[in-house]
Amino acid sequence: MTVAVRDPELRTRPGRFASRAGVGTRMMSHVQESHVAGARGEIEGQLEQHRKELTGYCYRMLGSPFEAEDAVQDTFLRAWRGFDRFEGRAAFRSWLYRIATNVCLDMLNSRSRRARPMDFGPAATPDPANLNTLPEVTWIEPMPMSLISSEDDPADVVATRDTIRLAFVAALQHLPARQRAVLILCEVLRWKASEVAELLDTSVASVNSALQRARATIDERDIAETDAVVPMDREQREMLARYVDAFQRYDVDALTAVIREDASQSMPPYDMWLSGRDDILTWFYGPGIGCAGSRLIPVEMANGSVAFGQYKPSETGSGYDPWAVQVLEFAGGKVVEFTFFLSTERLFPLFGLPPRLDD
Q1: Is the pTM of this model over 0.85?
Q2: Taking a C-beta distance cutoff of 8 angstroms, is the pair 227, 331 a contact?
Q3: What is the C-alpha separation between 18 and 56, in angstroms, rounded?
Q4: pLDDT band at residue 152, thresholds of 50, 70 and 90?
Q5: Which phi-psi region, left, alpha or beta, contains residue 208 (left: φ > 0; alpha: ψ -120 to 50)?
Q6: What are the residue boundaries of the structural domains of the chain, listed by start?
Q7: Looking at domain 8-109, which of 1.10.10.10, 1.10.510.10, 1.10.1740.10, 2.40.160.20 is its CATH number?
């Protein structure tokens, strides 16, 4: 199936999300122009009210902000084209979720699940020989929080955080697609089982059974608790300042002080991941020594966690080249997980980061 059918106005500029307006431009040519303009404005307004929540839903289903955007665009186009058949028997929001769910299920039928390096086996030793890519694997990608929650409402970010964390999104990918939808709708969005049953054209008993199996699978993943960061308190800000200073100076003693002993590190698209501060620092000061002298640029939160754009000193001797989007989680005042997303061509524009830094 071809996903994310777009009108010309909806095409995304490379690396950037599409315009938030102009969802349908080739519609209802048989209707008078003035009526079209009025109808278009009314329907677009209704659709846009649901963009962020639908993006969050599709991201949890698909594990990629880019695929989530495609799914929402496709949902809006289908809703627009089918609006004359919407008879109002269901709430408009429920109708959109039905469409979005079908779009996501179609997309999931065409590929394997997304994953994190931790999904492929135990931690490796900090040896460059363990840096392997898996061409058949598609990796979970980070999501800027502003695309799924209100930027001016920290409480909204807090409420969303635990169900958008990388570890939770990764755990969701282990569920069959329909179980995934049931869990998200019931546990995250707090829909009633009867509402989910109607959306999925199934019985309440079937929904409850799927929910029970999904919960058991998620519980098996044993997702670790980490500290909330919004609104960030003084202690957390001080800790992050110490981390940025330690990393930019590449100071081994200072890094040791801010990294928890049982911390982990991963670097998609490599399948290698490390467990334990000693192995992480061995990597930093061994194969990863090229990161010495890096600059960290704070960006908006990703998946409810603190994030930075990392730029390494350029091999040309001038300026700094993009290296990774760092997503950090911490607990007890120390960094407990590093994820270095190396797909900078895709992710730096998404987070509004420049292509390189000058001296």
Answers
A1: yes
A2: yes
A3: 16
A4: low
A5: alpha
A6: 8-109, 115-165+223-359
A7: 1.10.1740.10
